[in-house]
Amino acid sequence: MTYASIAMRSMTVNTIVLISIAARPAELVLRNGRLSEVPAMITQLKFVGIPTNDQDRALKFYTEKLGFEVSTDQVFNERQRWIELRISNSPTRVVLFTPEGHEDRVGSFFNGAFACDDASATYRQLKARGVTFVKEPQKQPWGEFAIFKDPDGNQFVLSSS
Length: 161
Fold this sequence. Notes:
Blueprint: E1 3-9, E2 16-22, E3 26-31, E4 34-39, E5 47-50, H1 55-65, E6 69-75, E7 81-86, E8 93-96, E9 109-115, H2 119-128, E10 132-140, E11 143-149, E12 155-160
C-alpha cells in the first residue's frame, strides 16, 4: 500500500501538522484553511462485455473451462440474459452479452488481457481442459503471453509479468 503524506502549516498555532493517509481514489484539496476530500469521478472498471451468439455455450465455457463464477444471471429481454461472471478476486466482471446491432463483434479480438501469475502454467492447465490456443506462450521483455479463443471465436490475451 502506498501512503501520501501532507504537511500543512497551521496559521493559528504556527506548528507543522503531518497527516498520513492511505492512498485511495480521491483528491485532497485545501479549502478555507481546511483539508477536504474530493471523491474521484471514476474509481474502477465495473465490467467488460464479451459478445456471444450462444449464451448457454459461452457460460459453460467460461465457468467450466476458465473457472469463472456466476455473479448474475437474469433475463434482460426476450432474446438475451444479463450474465455477469466473477474472475477470482477481481472487482471487474465479465458480461456475456451482445448489444443489439453489435452482432458483428462476435468472434473478434478482445482489446484487453486476462492476467495470471504464470502464463506457461496457466496455458498448460487450460489446454488440458480443452481450451484452444492460437498462440503458445511467448516470453517478452515485459513478461509472457499466450492467446486463446472461446467457442464464438473471440480471442483473448493471457498475460503474466
